[in-house]
Structure formats: C-alpha cells, structure tokens
Design a protein that fits this description.
The complex is a heterodimer of chains A (138) and B (341). Chain A has helices at 31-43, 73-83, 93-103, 111-119, 125-136; strands at residues 2-7, 10-17, 23-25, 45-53, 58-66, 87-91. Chain A is an alpha+beta fold and 138 residues long. A 4-stranded antiparallel sheet of chain A has the order 3-2-1-6, covered by helices on one side. A two-stranded antiparallel ribbon of chain A has the order 4-5. In chain A, α3 (93-103) packs parallel to α5. Chain B is of the alpha/beta class and 341 residues long. Chain B folds into 2 domains: 13-57, no CATH class; 68-329, no CATH class. Chain B is 50% helix and 7% strand. In chain B, strands 1-2-4-3 form a 4-stranded mixed sheet. Mean pLDDT of chain B is 73; it is low at 1-7, 45-49, 107-126 and 337-341. Classes of the chains: A alpha+beta (138), B alpha/beta (341). β5 of chain A pairs antiparallel with β3 (170-176) of chain B, so a sheet runs across the interface.
Chain lengths: 138, 341
C-alpha cells in the first residue's frame, strides 16, 4: 500500500507498507513526521473496529492494539494517521498506468489527452476509476 | 509516453478519419464528465446525450435492475443463500427488518431533526452547535427520523465483558440501534465515550459519526426504503464485496466468523458504513461504483445534496465552532496529545 501524507496541503511523506507490516519511506520525509511515525510504530498502533452484538442490539466502535503481522496492519496504519489529523491519500499506480496505456492510443495533439495526463498524478481514485470505466466501455 | 501521431491518419481514408474523430469526441466528453464529477460531484443526470454510452456509469444500478427482474421472493431466497437468513433470523431483528420493515414501522411517529443531548460541562460543544453541524451538512433524509440523538462524553470507555474482547480494547462509541416497541424503534442513539475525547474532533465527526450514519441508513435501519429496495441495496453491496476494486477498510477486513455466511453479512454491513463515511468525508478515495451506490441512495431523499460542498462546510464549521475553542475553556474536544504539526 502506497500512502501520501499531507498536512495543511503540505506533503510530508510517501509511505510504502508491505503486506508483512514493513513500513518504509519512498523519499526523504518531513523530519517531525518521521520521528512521530517511527516512535508510534515502535510503541505499537491501534485500529478501530465496529463490533455488533445481536443479543443486545448494541454496536461498539472500539480501539484495540494491532500487530504488524496482522493482514489488516497496512489499513490500520492508514486509519491511524487519519485519526491523528493527517490527510492520507492512498495511491493506485496500477489505475494510473492503465489510463496511460489507454491514452497512448490517442493522438499526441489531442487536448483532452494532454489535460488528463497532466492531471493524472494528482487525480483522485474516484476520477481515475470513472475514466477507466468510461474509456474501457468504448 | 507518445500517442498516435495525428499526421499518421491518412486523410484519403474517410472511414479511418471518422474513426479517429469519433474517438476524440468521446475522449472529450469523458474528460468533461470527469471534471464535472470532481468539481460538482454529479454524474448521470448531468450527462447530455452523446456518443459516450453512460451504460457503465449506471452499472451498479443496472445490476440492481437486473436483480429487480427477480421477484421479491427470489431476492429473499438469494439473500438466504448468501447470508444464511435462518441463522440470522434466530439471532435478531436484522432479517425481520429487511423482510417486514414497512409493516413494522406503520403508524410510527416521525421524528424530525436530530436531538442532541447538551452537556453542561462542555459549553462550547453545546447542543445547538453540534446539532447545527449534523443537521446542516448531511442529507435531510439521512438524519431526520434516522438518528434520534448523539450524546457526547457521558459513558465510560470500558467494553462490556460479554463482548469477549481483549483487555487492551476500549470503546469510543456505543450505538443502540433498536428500541423495540417504542417510538424510537429503528432509530439510532450514538453515545460517545470518554475515550472519544482523545480523538481528533474532525475524525470523530467526519469519520466516526458518518460511519454510524451509514448504519442508520442501511437496508436494516433506513426508515424510508421499501422492503424491495432494502434487498436490492443489500445484494448490491454484497456484489461490491467480491469486486477487485472494493474499498479497503480495516473495519471490514478485521471481521472473522466461523460461520462464513454470517461473516459475509457482517462485512456487508461494515462495507456500506465505510463507503458512506468516505462519500461524506472524501469521495475522491472511492471507486466510482461505490460512489454511485451511495449517491443513488442519498439522492432519493435529498436530490440536491452535494457531498463535496457539504464536506467543506462541515469541516469549516467544526474548525470554527470546536477546534478554535481551547481546552482550558471547557472544550474537551480541543486538540490534545496530537503529533507535532
């Protein structure tokens, strides 16, 4: 999972979290953020879960520790950073690549092709999946 | 990356020229639609007739429509196959609600608007401010008659022992979904615990409460869906659970149950709540299919709702009414113990 971390529209870091819970920075991060995340990972992070009890018709949103070996750990890191007040954007390089591949079949001087390619690196997943769905349906 | 050179098109070949011109027009329409989606949060209704087949946009609805070809009984049977209705029915009200909601709610009092319990200890997050944020920035039909009250900070964080959870677990919110036999039946009461005060208030409102609003407006709890619409939504969400592009959430992925059909049902409940939360908070993180699924339900009760505009307005209201009031003035939700920013 590839995450971009922002604070007040300022990019602090890009994190890559492997399925076995290994967290690494893909470029030099903001120093304060680096200290914060490394410290929190050392002490262990928590995740939120919603547990429903049929007998009482109660549900509880609860906070609990999560281990790095848990398959949900990358998702928990993302959620943990959001709870700490950061804006977290999950990148989807595979969707971006797919759009580039489709647009390669359009002329270089097509203004919409140029516009989409220009916006692509900052584009949200919603717009990317919309474009993919629309272009693939043709 | 280089595209196909315009110069490569043979002007003497009208068929080929027409082919490329058509493709360019389509790309232009798709790009315009994408921009409208991002700027205005609109799809579908805003699409002018053109060469872009809007079929894929309505794929979710199409799938639902396909299911509509099934009779109500056939849909119930399908749901039974997927979720094991029999085992669910023995345990609670979920199935009863999906099958017989209209009958159950007949004659019930309609409660308009959110009633928020005030806290004398916390003057700044008073009922007026909080109620204003919730009532102003969520779709009318998603709050009115769905959520009875949101009460901050009255209960402790201890998780009741019957949940059998680890000793390190603590509760942030309790959500009571059914008060049988009263006018409250079907509505939700959201109780925030003392531990919730440690959370970022933006996260609390924009993620946690939006998640609960999703539950309050799902196939089991929504007060305005027909029985058939309930089954359609449940089956559509179930489809999304199997999609490669499904929304990733630890709420969903952490659910484990020895009964796999029951596990699927629990996952569907949480999946819906999570995509609703994302829709209200930051729709850009959603796959377009999930966006359409939530948007289509929202627009039924509030056709003019704009999730992007409302999200900005909510964030600004929280900032103005809550975050800027310091803790030493009694604001328990003022930022504390947050990382250096």
């Amino acid at each position: 999972m590839l995450l971009e971390i922002f604070q007040d529209d300022r990019k602090l870091a890009t994190l890559e979290i492997s399925s076995n819970g290994e967290v690494r920075f893909t470029a030099k991060p903001n120093k304060d953020f680096e200290e914060f995340i490394l410290s929190r990972l050392r002490h262990g992070i928590t995740q939120l879960r919603d547990v429903y009890n049929y007998d009482t018709s109660f549900s509880i949103i609860m906070e609990e520790p999560i281990k790095e070996t848990n398959p949900s750990f990358p998702l928990a890191v993302r959620q943990f950073l959001e709870r700490a007040g950061y804006k977290v954007i999950e990148k989807h390089p595979e969707a971006e690549k797919e759009i580039r591949d489709i647009l390669a079949d359009f002329p270089d001087d097509n203004p919409d092709r140029a516009d989409i390619l220009k916006r692509l690196p900052e584009m949200g997943y919603l717009e990317q999946t919309f474009l993919l769905g629309a272009l693939k349906s043709k | 990356m280089r595209g196909i050179e315009s110069a490569g098109i043979n002007p003497d070949n009208p068929a080929k020229k027409e082919f490329f011109e058509r493709r360019n027009r389509i790309l232009s329409q798709v790009n315009n639609m994408a921009r409208r989606l991002v700027i205005f949060g609109v799809l579908g209704a805003a699409i002018a007739p053109g060469e872009v087949d809007p079929g894929f946009i309505f794929q979710s609805q199409t799938e639902v429509s396909q299911k509509k070809k099934l009779s109500f009984e056939e849909k119930k049977k399908k749901a039974e196959e997927l979720f094991g209705w029999d085992s669910l029915e023995a345990k609670g009200t979920e199935v009863r609600n999906v099958k017989d909601f209209e009958k159950i709610m007949k004659g019930k009092t309609i409660i308009d608007g959110l009633v928020t319990s005030s806290s004398s200890e916390f003057e700044e997050l008073n009922s007026d401010k909080f109620t204003e944020i919730v009532n102003k920035t969520f779709p009318k039909g998603w709050v009115n008659n769905e959520v009875a009250a949101i009460s901050p900070g009255y209960v402790t964080e201890a998780v009741p022992p019957e949940y059998g959870l680890g000793k390190d677990s603590k509760a942030l919110a309790f959500c009571i979904s059914q008060w049988r036999g009263t006018d409250w039946e079907g509505r939700r009461l959201i109780l925030l615990t003392t531990a919730a005060e440690q959370q970022d208030i933006h996260y609390l409102v924009e993620e946690l409460i939006t998640h609960e609003l999703g539950h309050a407006n799902d196939w089991s709890s929504d007060m305005e869906m027909s029985n058939e619409e309930r089954l359609d939504l449940l089956l559509a969400v179930s489809d999304r659970l199997d999609a490669a592009s499904r929304y990733d959430s630890s709420y969903v992925e952490s659910i484990k149950n020895r009964n796999k059909r029951l596990e699927r049902y629990f996952k569907a409940r949480e999946y819906w709540a999570e995509i609703c939360s994302a829709y209200f908070n930051d729709p850009d993180v959603l796959d377009v299919e999930d966006y359409i699924l939530v948007d289509s339900v929202v627009k039924k009760s509030d056709p003019n709702f704009n999730c992007r505009k409302s999200s900005q307005e909510r964030s600004q209201m929280i900032e103005k009414n809550i975050v800027r009031t310091p803790r030493n003035r009694g604001n328990k939700y003022a930022p504390r113990n947050l990382p250096r920013r």
